[in-house]
Amino acid sequence: MKTAITVIGVLFAAGVAWPAEIHAPAQTIAGSAITISTSGSGEATFYLIGPASAIKQKVQAGSDIPLDGDKLDNAGRYVAVLCASDGCTSTSFSVNPAAANKLGMLVHPSRVPIGKPNGISTVAFVFDNFHNLVLKPQPIKFSILPKDGKAVSTNRDSENGVAWVRISSGNKEGATKIGAEIGHADEVRVVQQIAAEACNLRIKAGREKNAFVVETDPVRDCAGNSVPDGTVVSFTKTDAAGKTTVDVPIKRGIAKVQMPIDGRARITVASGVVTGNELEVAGSQ
Amino acid sequence: MSTPLRYSLLAVSFAAFICAVVVLRLGASASVEVPHVEFNADNIAPREIEDLTSQSVPRDYGFAWQTMEQALDENRPALLDGYFTGLAREDLKDRVAAQLKTGLRTHYEDRGHKLEAIFYAPAGDAMELHDHAQVDVQIFDGSKVIYEEPLSMEYIVLMTPGADRWLVRQIQALPSEKQ
Questions:
Q1: Is A108 in contact with B94 (Cβ distance < 8 A)?
Q2: Residue A33: which of A64, A63, A73 has the closest Cα?
């Protein structure tokens, strides 16, 4: 017995290296500092490999290794390795997302005709401060704030870090704000609501100097909103020579075209699927 | 030997040399194979997946893993530009840069992925997926293996469409059991 105690004492005194071991908490939260404990003795190399990092440093086996929170920003799997003279030992741990505090938002489309049911799609992704996707369900408030209108909101719980809603566009043209909110964080996108298809398209004919001119009344949709400039209006002339179509974009609310008229002709107008009135004209007019 | 014959032999030798270089180069770029990806979109919502998308998503996800594995094995960050975007690309480039700095590299033996699409945005501009991946991982410091382990990993993945392919925008490992 005395001999055994003496041998152990001598081994300690001689500084015989014990097998190195490394221990980390099984899980932690992104951005939180942790301490990794090691056992053994002597010089060793410590490695930490994470989703966006790889660290290598000299340590003393048997000492604790403090890791600052900024080394653990990314959620995912981390591997900690300790290599000493007798080989390498490792452990792994998970870094989980921190509290939800950011939203990523997709709103589509950026321009939508008024009165379109479920015309606007809004998707919100829930992130923590380090841009890790937060998978725990979170309540998200979606809201729509039309220009000169009353805000409307609805709540949805995120599922797997995502929440979404479909929103119908309003009846008035103009910029509409679409928002999503979680805690103190919010995101806003602007969707331009534009007039729908033209309604009650009407044309009139006249002369300007020596030319024959056909123009529309101000082009509006059925709710009275001006159809945006650039929308194409098609004028079609049918006479003895056949059929001629001229496409003209709306400028300052009306579409206007000069047409040579020889003899009797019929002029019709259309925009998209909407047709307007017809004119019977003669070249002498 | 006649002059035309000499020139012909020279041309043939040069062509053979070029072919050899090309073959070697192709061999290098295909040193990591495209992993097997089993795709399931049965539970996708709210938008139904299009036929073409159901082919391109698993194909591009496989290419993403292939290029990531090669980038981490050979410490070549430029490989990540092909199938990654946003923070996923930045994070992986940070990892490669850190590996280069510390002399580390990570080698994967990819045993396949079970990829399940769980969310497809109504406008078709984002998809969320769940990947069950089987990989053997080895980490080297120089030529010395400091860590090796067969892993069964779960990932949550966000992909968005690019000009001609789907790109990985976020890939986040979830806590999972070791095999």
A1: no
A2: A73
**What's chain A's average pLDDT?**
89
Q: Which of A45, A55, A56 to mutate to test the interface with B (most CBs of B within 10 A)?
A: A56
Class of domain B31-178: alpha beta
What's the one-letter identity of residue B161? P
Tell me whether residue A129 is exposed, middle or buried, using C-beta atoms within 10 angstroms of its C-beta: 0 to 12, 13 to 18, 19 or more: middle
Task: Count CB neighbours of B143 within 10 A.
Answer: 6
Q: Does A52 touch chain B (CB under 8 A)?
A: yes
Identify the residue among B43, B89, B91, B101 best suited for mutation to test binding to A, counting A beta carbons within 10 A and taking the highest: B91
Q: What is the ipTM of this complex?
A: 0.83
Is B118 within 8 Å of A160 when comparing Cβ atoms?
yes
pLDDT of B120 strictly over 60:
yes
* Angstrom distance (rounded) from CA B170 to CA B84: 8
Question: Tokens 């469409």 sit at which residue?
Answer: B161
Contacts of A133 in chain B (CB under 8 A): 156, 158, 170, 172
DSSP letters of A69-118?
Answer: GGGG-S-EEEEEEEEETTEEEEEEEEEE-----EEEEEEE-SEEETT-TT
- Measured CA to CA, the distance from residue A4 to residue A42 in angstroms comes to 24
Cβ contact B122–A133 (<8 Å): no
CB-defined contacts A:B, below 8 A = 107
Amino acid letter, B4: P
Would the CB atoms of B173 and A49 count as touching at under 8 Å?
A: no
Residue pair A281/A212 in contact by the 8 Å Cβ criterion: yes
Q: Has residue B177 got a pLDDT over 70?
A: no
Q: What is the CA radius of gyration of chain A?
A: 37
In this complex, the residue of A94, A109, A159 whose CB is nearest that of residue B175 is: A94
Tell me if B147 and A96 make a contact (CB, 8 A cut-off).
Answer: no
How many beta carbons lie within 10 A of that of residue A210, not counting itself?
Answer: 5
Model confidence pLDDT, tens digit, residues A56-103: 999 999 999 999 999 999 999 999 999 998 899 999 999 999 999 999
DSSP calls for A111-172: EEETT-TT-EEEEEEEE-TT--B--S--EEEEEEE-TTS--EEEEEE-BTTEEEEEE---SS
Does the CB of B142 have a partner CB in chain A at under 8 Å? Answer: no
Cβ partners under 8 Å of residue B41, min gap 6:
B49, B54, B116, B117, B120
pLDDT in tens, A244-255: 999 999 999 999
